[in-house]
Amino acid sequence: MDLLTQKLGYQFKNSSLLVQAMTHPSRASEHRNEPADNQRLEFLGDAVIQVILTKHLYCSLPDRAEGSLTKIRASLVSKKALASCARRLGLGEYLRLGKGEEGSGGRDRDSNLADAFESLLGAVFLDGGLAHATEVAMRLMDEDLSNISGGEDTSNPKGRLQEVLQAIQRESPVYRVLEEEGPDHLKEFRVEVLWNGKPLGRGGGSSKKNAETAAARDALERRSWEG
User: Fold this and answer.
1) For position 155, what pLDDT does the model report?
2) Which distant-in-sequence residues (6+ apart) come within 8 Å of 46 by Cβ?
3) d(Cα 73, Cα 57) in Å, to the nearest integer?
């Protein structure tokens, strides 16, 4: 966990909070002596992120109406958006999973990553207070917040990507399923988005639609069509 604290730029006074934040319920249920899982920290972290983003959006977008601010905040705290933040941090490799969850690809599952990200912010809040939690959250979510500050609408990544690409050439992006795995009730899809035959981004999700949205968001972050 030492490397994770370096990436966070925050040193925990109570390191057990960090361990708890990375402990998936499947791990705690399989090992009697494990610390508590991260569900309660996730609950707390969700509220902490909401408060941090609400204040930031209110102050940084003074001309936006309530409805617009609500929509932007919802896009920033969606499972897909938080999972993307977690992936940039490399959070998946630090998750403490049960054997079954590990074997079914849980280390890269959007829901697990988003929950861990929320738990992490909840842990920082408990350990160091709102000021430290705000500092960490703003740094980890800087890329998403920069898009908002720059006027880019991230609430509809697929629509935004098509709009950007068709402004260059009237060729629509194409989405291709790369992988489909898991039982029917727990499907996971991996999708790639291409434009003019060139791969622009990849994403995963529990449905094709969610995976396509994640792929479009990844493409918007990479902007490889400019290269």
Assistant:
1) 58
2) 77, 118, 122
3) 8
Cβ-proximal residues to 177 (8 Å cutoff; 6+ apart), any chain: 189, 190, 191, 208, 211
**What's the order of all strands across the beta sheet hosting 198-205?**
174-181, 188-195, 198-205
E-assigned strand segments in the chain: 174-181, 188-195, 198-205
Could you say which of 118, 127, 188, 212 is catalytic?
Answer: 118
Task: Identify the residue with better confidence: 102 or 40.
Answer: 40
Cβ-defined contacts of 102-105 (< 8 Å, 24+):
104/182, 104/186, 105/181, 105/182, 105/188
Burial bucket for residue 207 (CB in 10 Å: 0-12, 13-18, 19+): exposed
Read off φ and ψ for residue 44, nearest 5 degrees.
-70, -45
Active site residue 46: yes
pLDDT tens-digit profile of 117-144? 999 999 999 999 999 999 999 999 988 8
**The pair of three-digit structure tokens given for residue 23, joined into one six-digit string:** 């402990």
Q: Which two tokens stand for residue 155?
A: 């609430």
Is 42 one of the annotated active-site residues of the chain? no
Which DSSP category does 23 fall into? B
Q: What is the pLDDT of residues 67-105, one digit of tens each?
A: 888 888 988 999 989 999 999 899 999 999 999 898 999
| Given 37, 42, 46, 212, the catalytic residue | 46
